[in-house]
# Entry
Amino acid sequence: MTNAPARAGRIIAVASGKGGVGKTWFAITLAHALARQGAHVLLFDGDLGLANVDVQLGLMPERDVGEVISGRMPLENAVLHHEGGFDILPGRSGSGSLASLHPAMLERVLAALRGATARYDVVIADLGAGLDRAQRRMASFSDLLLVIATDEPTSLTDAYAVLKLHASDAGAKAPDARIVVNQAGTVVAGERTFAALRRACSTFLGRTPPLAGVIRRDDRVREAIRRQSLLLTRHPATHAAADVEAIATRLAS
# Structure
């Protein structure tokens, strides 16, 4: 175990422009990695309509963020503790997306998450894929945005769109956004993918978001997801596990 992150009380949003890039898996594994390093972590399933965190971890929560949205329950009473050492604020499967929330209710959720930073070192918000108003608001509200991309052309295009809108939404505030390349064949291949995205950002946005890390492709990631288990517990010696732990270490420094 190492000490908890020097920068405490941060909200980290995990986003992607499209589905299928491993966003929710990464958010879960990052939460686990940070918890293993000594941080007190809350993972918020921000994709309310699908509740992917529940599905990937095989959870059947009795309470969820719907109780917080309605004002019937404070956030701390709606969370559940996972054996991996981190807490989870579940989404509500089938309830519709954040986009359907009244703005005042969305702000209630955000205020609750900000309040949680008094008790947690890191709050990780797994945002739904897409570029709707609510997802953009949550991204701009966060202290750090991690954008997940793969080497697929559509993923790169959508990741660029997320970064472009995030820069626009930040206004005068310099946005803290970083790129995570997932499912890379090798570290070098992942760095090439990042370089292509960085060039587009530099050319058209005048910004160059840094690389948070490269996660190498590994079939045991898929196996762990099928088993609804944590990669760092089931296959701790894999390249993908080491890559996520390295990202967690850099974020904690």
